[in-house]
Write a structure and sequence with these properties.
Layout lengths: L1 H16 L12 E5 L5 H13 L2 E4 L19 H7 L19 E7 L7 H10 L5 E7 L6 H10 L4 E7 L5 H10 L2
Parallel strand pairs: 1-2, 1-3, 3-4, 4-5
Helix pairs in contact: 1-6, 2-6
Length: about 180
């Protein structure tokens, strides 16, 4: 019974946080989408999906990133080239069914060059999310999510952006507290 009540409380706080007060909790749908090159962001996404009762979805590049692609110390690595060209849009596997059916979309990623990888732009542009509530979460070796929050709010003004958070080593309890703080 306690778990049931906790789940209802979390869902209610998510609804309130995201301004979706006119929908009943049964009608609200949450998506937890993530891009994870090494598995770190994936682990956080799984915990967030559990806390929010959201649908977990992996943003998959058509061509998977290798360790060489991720070597940020090489100017010619795939990730370095993409991040130096902010108009870069790495191709993704487009297999998200009924994207328009979600009310709240959490999007997770590792911070690259102080912001979101350009594959996140590809995902947003592929599915739109105009009028939807979108909240970033990220993992990082030391950078914050603030630059991504600002850049994406400016680039995609038709989305209802809520401030995201870096969730390094976050427990489910930490994630739950953050979700509740979005009120």
């Amino acid at each position: 019974m306690k778990r049931f009540l906790l789940a209802i409380a979390i869902l209610a706080s998510t609804l309130t946080a995201c301004g979706q007060k006119n929908k009943s909790t049964e009608d609200m749908k949450t998506l937890v989408a993530y891009f994870s090159a090494t598995g770190t962001t994936e682990a956080v996404a799984k915990d967030l999906a559990a806390v929010t009762s959201g649908t977990l979805y992996e943003i998959k590049p058509e061509v998977k990133y290798t360790s060489e692609d991720l070597d940020w110390t090489l100017k010619t690595s795939r990730s370095s080239v993409e991040m130096q060209d902010r108009s870069s849009r790495p191709a993704i596997v487009k297999d998200l069914d009924e994207a328009d059916g979600y009310d709240v979309i959490y999007i997770g990623f590792p911070v690259w060059w102080y912001t979101a990888p350009t594959i996140i732009n590809t995902f947003i542009e592929a599915y739109g999310f105009s009028g939807k509530t979108v909240i970033f979460f990220a993992t990082s070796g030391g950078s914050s999510i603030e630059k991504a929050n600002a850049e994406f709010k400016e680039a995609y003004p038709d989305i209802d952006w809520k401030a995201g958070k870096t969730l390094n080593s976050a427990s489910q309890e930490d994630i739950q507290e953050w979700v509740e703080s979005l009120k």
